[in-house]
Amino acid sequence: MALCERDRAVLDLERTWWLDGGTKTAAVRGRLGISLSRFNQLLGQLASSKDAEEYDPLLVRRLRRAKLERRWRMNEGPAGGRRQR
User: Fold this and answer.
1) Residue 14's pLDDT is what?
2) Cα separation, 58 vs 68, whole angstroms
């Protein structure tokens, strides 16, 4: 299934929001009319989409890498992944 217009707009915004010179929240509200939380939910769903990867492979791979890094840091814990004795 191909990406809908909203999905392409979400990916385009993630790629270029910083060019507006404002905050990401303002860019999301202004361009898409949704909250930043909803935007991040949509972005997370798109990160696992083959269609999204075909549309913008560099962005989607960056999103996947960032997600893996966050998961790795969360699992590492406060002791840096080392057991305390």
Assistant:
1) 97
2) 15
